[in-house]
Amino acid sequence: MENLLEPVKVGLLGLGTVGGGTVNVLQRNAEEISRRAGRGIVVSHASARDVNKPRICKTDGIQLTENPTDVVTDPDVSIVVELIGGDTLARELVLTAIANGKHIVTANKALIAKHGNEIFSAAQKQGVMVAFEAAVAGGIPIIKAIREGLAGNQIEWLAGIINGTGNFILTEMRDKQRDFDSVLAEAQRLGYAEADPTFDVEGIDAAHKLTILASIAFGIPLQFEKVYTEGISKITGEDVDYANELGFTIKHLGVSRRTESGVELRVHPTLIPKRRLIANVDGVMNAVLVKGDAVGPTLYYGAGAGAEPTASAVVGDIVDVVRVLTSDPENRVPHLAFQPESLSDLPILPIEEVETAYYLRIAASDQTGVMANITTILADNGISIDSMLQKEHKCSINPADDKATIIIVTHTTIEKNMNEALSKINALEAVSDDVVRIRLEHLDAD
Amino acid sequence: MENLLEPVKVGLLGLGTVGGGTVNVLQRNAEEISRRAGRGIVVSHASARDVNKPRICKTDGIQLTENPTDVVTDPDVSIVVELIGGDTLARELVLTAIANGKHIVTANKALIAKHGNEIFSAAQKQGVMVAFEAAVAGGIPIIKAIREGLAGNQIEWLAGIINGTGNFILTEMRDKQRDFDSVLAEAQRLGYAEADPTFDVEGIDAAHKLTILASIAFGIPLQFEKVYTEGISKITGEDVDYANELGFTIKHLGVSRRTESGVELRVHPTLIPKRRLIANVDGVMNAVLVKGDAVGPTLYYGAGAGAEPTASAVVGDIVDVVRVLTSDPENRVPHLAFQPESLSDLPILPIEEVETAYYLRIAASDQTGVMANITTILADNGISIDSMLQKEHKCSINPADDKATIIIVTHTTIEKNMNEALSKINALEAVSDDVVRIRLEHLDAD
Prior knowledge:
Two copies of one chain form a homodimer.
Chain A: E1 8-13, H1 17-28, H2 30-37, E2 41-47, E3 63-65, H3 68-72, E4 79-82, H4 89-99, E5 103-106, H5 109-126, E6 130-131, H6 142-149, E7 155-161, H7 164-176, H8 180-190, H9 198-201, H10 204-218, E8 228-229, H11 237-245, E9 248-259, E10 262-273, E11 285-292, E12 296-303, H12 307-323, E13 355-365, H13 370-380, E14 385-393, E15 403-410, E16 413-414, H14 415-427, E17 436-440
Parallel strand pairs in A: 1-2, 1-4, 2-3, 4-5, 5-6, 8-10, 10-17
Antiparallel strand pairs in A: 7-9, 7-11, 9-10, 11-12, 13-15, 13-16, 13-17, 14-15
């Protein structure tokens, strides 16, 4: 087949895991991709910190440089693919590339979550596209699904397992009765977790992704600084087991819900019913559950990280950009799904205003009246109990030292009510340790 | 917010369930949709068989007609939404609309599967778009995901639960130990199944959808007449139970796989491992599992039918069309994902050439040598056994009449080898009824 159009030239910033994967996918599937795009796509220029390092991809025919500015200013390059990560140098390079009239494809969630508003505004002025499918949930085309596929819906809420490392750790803790620290060490050995695992296990990475998902779902500006973020490092095997006994599994979820008073934006460990499809998304896999008013619940599942799954999203974006290279910017899908002048100023709710159910684990001495005290405090704060379970822990020869573990699952309540109740329960003489509180979502279709 | 562009005018063919749902979604979410599309979208003209019939939607401001040709020739209408179903009148109207320069959105799988090649070719000549997201898996944006989101991949295979009626019946049979006929009658009462359930339970509806999915996944023309189709009406509670005992669940799957010698296109009941996510897609819900060479396995889940889920896909398509209304046709996503001149002539494999594993249920008299005979026949035909299970059925006082049920799960083999083996096993004197054979897929990631 003859193709009269010249191949589109792509410049890559970064030739590591995702950069190498992108080169490999573009080369291996070149014929298939040009049959779709109607045009060849070649990487013509790439930057790397050390051009002599061994790589996972062949670099024949690619001009290599250690100076990324060479790539973003190369007049032959139409599309710059940013894969260096971080949000300082990446931001500068992307803004320079935009100023030079390049379209951008990026896998950088921190960059988009923190500087997306600035970047999209610059791109808008220059008439170029910034595509970021690879920034959320790796190879799952979730940005496209929400932004285009569900364009007829009012999105009501979304909930996602959007960090593979955290999901791997929770899955191993549940299935093999292991503790957090030992699984984390294994995840680091396997390369699933970084040497500094904070971004993954403390929910910062998930918060970046949730910021992006919420923007395109609800038509609000990116507001990373307003995400409530709680990690999984304090989850114990004990809670994993009790959750299981009650019919729940613990997942590290990013949740965003539109309410009348504002948008919830929160990342935290969450009990969810075991029978939900998303509760069965295990190991390093990702999934996002999106509830639209017309479509109902929909779920998108796949690999959330790794060289080739991420490259899949990067290349999908490149093909999208190639298709609209010559189109009028007015006709493109807006970066954040909604036209820039139509973004909403709906406030982000502080966590104290969020409404959710709770799992509580209370260690109390096994004495008369404790249960009455606890349930009275909950009732006084307007919190009703869904189910309860009491476990005796005979840990001493002296019966006066006997401890009981009380597990309570509540109905939904406003978090500030729960905070007040918990401060009173913690103050009870019979309650020995601080109450463990984990949020719980039923993820009902309605 | 001021919008200088006139609203886009849509003409509807059909004001039944999906037509009414489409009007409702466009009206209810008008603000949200125009914030996304950058332009208002209104239904200006609609046809119905009886314009005086009560409807699920308000029709104020919509010009109603009983003559659909009025709609497809209305000079004010830019986009015609075809929701009348069937493939005779629908084909004529869609071709007339295209000849009149209208873009088309349709939910009609039979039309696309059987006449898509002709329709897309006409649309191509006229420079108009034909969008058909609603034709497969209702509200799940699966066409967009495969065609655009996974554009960087070579798709290796896909497998879908793409008929909600069939999935409801199989789910009830499994969970409530009910038989096919009683569940079908209930599905008809609930409105999940038509009075004539043939299209759903015999797999014709799924075959239409599979035809479309395979085309956009593999870049082949639509070839509905080559789909191997087998329904679920012969599935018995006995097989559902044995499957369960062996760790499988029976689903009615559409499967398409690219092999070196051609493309498999088949709809049939299938045993799949219970631990797979798609095995847990129950009731009327749909899901499609797509394996790309770069992304690995991905899954898309949601409602496969119903007024508003289907309307969600219809409206998503309308927004897509509105976005490219003024764009150069060369830059659009091709109808079948691949450029029309780049479609492949890869043959469709006849079912005899398909490679799959099998579940076999054999009723045999419990006499010496039967098992040896059966296993020898399988081995002679190159079929190896994965697992086996024997159940005694003492059904008579005379031990000579004792029957055994033998369940065999095989490794993968070519179907023609299995056909030969089965004809020999059925000919054994000790084998009383024809062997029950159900295909089995592990749906592995690799």
